[in-house]
Design brief:
Distance between the termini: 62 Å
Membrane topology: Multi-pass membrane protein
Number of domains: 3
Main location: endoplasmic reticulum
Number of strands: 2
Strand order of the largest sheet: 1-2
Subcellular location: Endoplasmic reticulum membrane
Largest sheet: 2 strands, antiparallel
GO molecular function: acyltransferase activity
Helix content: 55-70%
Protein name: Lysophospholipid acyltransferase 1
Structural class: mainly alpha
Shape: globular
Radius of gyration: 23 Å
Oligomer: single chain
Length: 476
């Protein structure tokens, strides 16, 4: 590393600085260049891992070791000494896994992991505020927190609860034997998911390492040939190529659309004081659309990395095609064509929504929706914008449900009316999502209030009026 960093913000990172010339050439912050470089390296490593360390010719422990070593290297390359946070949390929680009593293992793991993550969120905000460093190490820490708590609850289900007390899914995922240190480290720190996720289940990961992953899924969907030796060996190549095409398109959109329509446009003088109301709504939609490609890029590339290693097979669809979406984090088509707030959310950050359901919503005895909201907010961080988004989201969700349950049936009598309904609800949904998630991207209080004032808090007011005056009918 250089002894004295230059003034350029792109150089200010705790990770490796060997790609600094490329960062300067592209005009992209160095930490983002490091992230992409690690994920592309992980993709190449994944192909090598599947071809040369395949389960058929490699001991599972060897696969665990290599997956862990590469993961640790990529974390250190990206985050430097910040990676110590990850290793400390993993070490402490493995100590809990080994020493804690079964009735308490999930509680201790949950509170330690979430507590450490929250402390790091608060610390990073103050560091970011004072401009000392720009590297965001919270992403890997958030993914590891999901995995630690998921594993702890599944061990508790397997060792501390009666089978009859478990749901079908909890019974399927329950773990009867505590993982070894090597299995624990490999699950949490493997190169396929340590940088950008997504979260996955311990049983699925171990089945992948041991070579039972695809065959178990094929048997699970009643493949016509039941003999183990006669089952096909699905190749992920097609799925990987498809997802890489999406990542390239997302990257191009990021380098063009996102650069030309940054979120700061929503608080500049022209937007706040000169544009008319409809122009502001349209511009808000465009800017929020421009903020998506980076998520599409990161999550789809992460999915492709796992698939390239042979992980992520989910079975066979109704047409007999092999599916590789077991741990996919989003469905772009359903997001962009969503005709309801619920449909949009169900296809965005899918694995996080699944984690929230499994560790909170299905387990807490009181106020599951409220407590799940609180957990989601804490997991994301402590920026005020996150809380604006979640609170607004509650209002919009309740109002949208009331409108749908009261009026949707009137538009189902003909195809023409249904098309009109779908077009209108699509436009309303896209605008509502843009309005709701803007604070999530803006982060701070002042720009959020400025934005909402400029568009007269219209969605808050409409949602409140709907909730107050429209009867809340049960879902049909």
């Amino acid at each position: 590393m250089a002894t004295a960093p230059p003034s350029s913000l792109s150089y200010r990172t705790t990770g490796s600085t060997c790609l600094h010339p490329l960062s300067e050439f592209l005009g992209i912050p160095l930490d983002q260049v490091n992230f992409v470089a690690c994920q592309l390296s992980a993709l190449l490593t994944a192909f090598w891992f599947r071809l040369y360390l395949s389960p058929g010719k490699t001991n599972p422990n060897v696969r665990h070791v290599f997956a862990t070593i590469f993961g640790i290297y990529f974390v250190i390359f990206c985050f430097g000494w910040y990676s110590a946070h990850l290793f400390v949390l993993v070490s402490v929680c493995y100590g809990i896994m080994v020493t804690a009593s079964v009735p308490n293992i999930h509680r201790y793991s949950f509170f330690v992991a979430m507590g450490y993550l929250t402390i790091c969120h608060i610390t990073r905000i103050y560091i970011f505020h004072y401009g000392i460093l720009t590297t965001d190490f919270s992403g890997p820490l958030m993914i590891v927190t999901q995995k630690i708590t998921t594993l702890a609850f599944q061990v508790h289900d397997g060792l501390g609860r009666k089978p009859e007390d478990l749901s079908a899914e909890q019974h399927r995922l329950a773990i009867k034997v505590k993982p070894s240190l090597l299995e624990y480290l490999s699950y949490l720190l493997n190169f396929m998911s340590v940088i950008a996720g997504p979260c996955n289940n311990f049983k699925d990961y171990i089945a992948f390492i041991e070579g039972r992953h695809t065959h178990r899924k094929l048997l699970g969907v009643n493949w016509k040939q039941k003999a183990f030796h006669s089952l096909p060996d699905p190749s992920p190549t097609g799925a990987v190529i498809h997802k890489l095409c999406i990542t390239v398109m997302s990257l191009l959109l990021f380098l063009t659309l996102t650069k030309n329509f940054p979120v700061t446009c929503l608080v500049d003088d022209w937007f706040v004081h000169k544009a008319n109301f409809l122009t502001r709504l349209f511009y808000l939609y465009v800017v929020m659309q421009a903020s998506k490609p980076k998520y599409y890029f990161a999550w789809t590339l992460a999915d492709a990395v796992n698939n390239a290693a042979g992980f992520g097979f989910s079975g066979v669809d109704e047409n007999g095609n092999f599916c590789w979406d077991l741990i996919s984090n989003l469905n772009i088509w359903k997001i962009e064509t969503a005709t309801s707030f619920k449909m949009y959310l169900e296809n965005w950050n899918i694995q996080t929504a699944t984690w929230l359901r499994r560790v909170c919503y299905e387990r807490v005895p009181w106020y599951p929706t409220v407590l799940t909201f609180i957990l989601s907010a804490l997991w994301h961080g402590v920026y005020p914008g996150y809380y604006f988004t979640f609170l607004t989201g509650i209002l919009v969700t309740v109002a949208a449900r009331a409108v749908r349950n009261n009026y949707r049936q009137y538009f189902l009598s003909s195809k023409a009316l249904k098309v009109v309904y779908d077009v209108v609800t699509w436009a309303v949904t896209q605008l509502a999502v843009s309005y709701t998630v803007a604070p999530f991207v803006m982060l701070a209080v002042e720009p959020t209030i400025s934005l909402y004032k400029s568009i007269y808090f219209y969605l808050h007011i409409i949602s409140l009026l709907i909730i107050l005056f429209l009867p809340i009918k049960p879902k049909e």
